[in-house]
Design brief:
The chain is of the alpha+beta class. It has helices at 3-10, 22-29, 35-43, 74-77, 88-93, 141-150; strands at residues 47-49, 53-55, 70-71, 99-105, 110-114, 125-128, 134-137, 171-173. It contains six helices and eight strands, in the order αααβββααββββαβ.
Length: 174
């Protein structure tokens, strides 16, 4: 069973997802996206889990007035605290400039991939807890969401105490 299939048991999908021209997105972003993320958007679309965790879709129009998948903004990268890591070894391996943000929480946590190699399916998930540090998880986006809802981390990786380990949740498309 895939992580997306496990997620569907905890988070029933809406009636339809989003159709995305992935070739145009690949050109616009200069990279492919992880296959589980593409499958997630086909099934769910962009939106929110219980109004607490937003998941963004990529966009080819930079003038859209909606949140979309993006790199961390330059003004954020200039903040000294943005380069804090929960593991000093990770601080040596990764740079916040390599993070592509795919979501955020109501607690101002940032969720993204560390795009350190050409194989998008191997990108680890990175979470920045508000006022804290980056933590890296070697799982896919859908695997991360499944583990978050299932409470399957050693400790809650976000500030979402109401969502962590909740089991079933609802997805609202945006």
């Amino acid at each position: 069973m895939t992580a997306l299939q496990r997620l569907e048991k905890l988070l029933p999908p809406p009636s339809e997802g989003t159709t995305i021209d992935w070739d145009a997105i690949t050109v616009a972003y200069g990279t492919r996206f992880p296959s589980d993320y593409m499958d997630f958007l086909s099934t769910y679309g962009s939106g929110e889990i219980d109004g607490m965790l937003a998941i963004f879709a990529p966009a080819t129009d930079p003038d859209l007035l909606v949140r979309c998948v993006s790199r961390l903004p330059v003004d954020v990268l200039d903040l000294p605290e943005i380069d804090e890591w929960s593991d000093t070894h990770q601080a040596e391996l990764y740079d916040p400039a390599d993070i592509m943000v795919w979501g955020e929480t109501a607690e101002a946590d940032v969720l993204g991939w560390i795009t350190v190699n050409d194989e998008a399916d191997d990108w680890p998930v990175a979470v920045y807890t508000h006022g804290g540090e980056w933590t890296v998880f070697t799982c896919t986006m859908t695997g991360f969401l499944t583990r978050l809802l299932g409470g399957d981390f050693e400790r809650n990786p976000t500030g979402l105490t109401r969502l962590y380990g909740r089991g079933n949740a609802q997805f609202s498309s945006s």
